[in-house]
Design goal:
Pfam families: 2-Hacid_dh_C. The chain folds into 2 domains: 173 residues, NAD(P)-binding Rossmann-like Domain (Rossmann fold, 3-Layer(aba) Sandwich); 174 residues, Rossmann fold, CATH 3.40.50. Helices cover 34% and strands 16% of the residues. The chain is built from 13 helices and 14 strands. The strands form 3 sheets. It has a 7-stranded parallel sheet, sandwiched between helices. The longest helix has 21 residues. The radius of gyration is 23 Å and the shape is elongated.
Length: 368
């Protein structure tokens, strides 16, 4: 991987090249730093064959800061850094300059677990001339499976029926929706949204519409692209699979809900901050939103009391991808990104190539 500054203030002779082959080494192998030890996949042995791997214990942000500084001083520099996921509170809540600063500028790849990277300061990483890669494939598949479960449960009204049985009232008089004929609108047709649409299509959904920043070239022909406002107008069910960005934060609010059909169903497996929960609670109480199924929350792990008390809300504690069994496949994806970077100079799923190029860095396989 070559990330070369092409700043007009520097001549080609003085432009720093930060490809793997040009970085200083104290051994015959490039050095890689892992937060956590092993992914428990076949990739653990491969990365150790091609790189000198150092590991750090899984601790929180405050404890991790001095550990990274110390290991860089003793064993660095490192060409890449990867974080391996474990269900624990001891995982840095943010990846920023305060945490990653000692690794720069020699570190040219940071790989985080999972599809989302709203807790990663990608702008800072880009400023150091490094790539950030996520690991969206496995978690995306599993999150989409969880989303399908929530969509079907909400459309059939499973939660209020469950509560009715528990209250010895047998069936509750609720309205159900047929996923074969209802219009299901998906906001965000990335890897998760695309799989959700594919799964719905496979069980007979005939009216799927979506909104993304632009029409998806991989969307099936029968999936209709819509503007955001038009999707609100048409959809019987609104499914959120979008990333958290400045544009999507608070997107589902009083104003957007008012544009939706009366009795709409809302499903969220993206990020909790996409929805303003006060506004959603009011819409549920008025009946504007008939039911909601939520895997993520605005201030998780705290859940709005109006959601907790509403029988028409299905609550899931950020477990759509079934995280208890998600670790190995997702962590294997992290390590596979590192392997591809060391071997070929480019990870599998980089997210900031365009930003690097806009700052004058030339990104591509090293010719050295």
């Amino acid at each position: 991987m070559s990330i070369t500054s092409s700043s007009p203030q520097e001549s080609s002779q003085s432009s720093p090249t930060t490809s793997i082959s040009s970085l200083p080494r104290t051994s015959s192998k490039p050095k890689v730093l892992l937060f956590g030890d092993r992914s428990e996949t076949k990739f653990d042995d491969i990365i150790r064959e091609i790189a000198e791997v150092h590991t750090l214990p899984r601790v929180g942000y405050e404890d991790m800061v001095p550990l990274i500084k110390d290991i860089v001083e003793k064993e660095g520099p490192f060409v890449a850094f990867g974080g391996l996921f474990l269900i624990t509170d001891n995982f840095p809540g943010k990846w920023d300059k305060g945490l990653l600063g000692p690794l720069a500028p020699e570190c040219k790849l940071y790989v985080g677990p999972g599809a989302g990277y709203d807790k990663v300061d990608v702008e800072y990483i880009t400023s150091t001339g490094a790539m950030y890669a996520n690991s969206p494939i496995q978690v995306g598949k599993r999150t989409a499976d969880g989303a399908l479960m929530l969509i079907l449960a909400a459309m059939r009204g499973l939660t209020p029926q469950d509560q009715s049985v528990r209250a010895s009232k047998w069936r509750a008089p609720i309205k159900t929706l047929d996923w074969c004929t209802s219009t299901i609108g998906i906001i965000g047709l990335g890897s998760i949204g695309s799989r959700v649409a594919t799964l719905l299509t496979s069980i007979g959904s005939q009216s799927i519409i979506y909104h993304s920043r632009k029409p998806s070239p991989t969307a099936q022909p029968q999936w209709g692209y819509r503007s955001l406002d038009q999707l609100y107008i048409e959809a019987d069910v609104v499914v959120l699979t979008c990333p958290l960005t400045n544009e999507t934060r608070g997107m589902i609010c009083k104003e957007s809900i008012e544009k939706m059909k009366d009795g709409v169903i809302l499903v969220n497996v993206s990020r909790g901050e996409v929805v303003i929960e006060d506004d959603l609670v009011q819409a549920l109480e008025s009946g504007k939103v008939m039911r909601a199924a939520l895997d993520v929350f605005e201030k998780e792990p705290t859940v709005h009391p109006g959601l907790l008390s509403n029988p028409n809300v299905t609550l899931s504690p950020h477990v759509a991808p079934a995280p208890d069994s998600m670790g190995p496949p997702m962590n294997g994806e992290v390590v596979e990104n590192l392997i591809r970077f060391v071997q070929e100079g480019m990870p599998i799923t980089p997210v900031n190539l365009r930003e690097l190029e806009s700052k004058g860095f030339q990104v591509g396989p090293s010719k050295a």
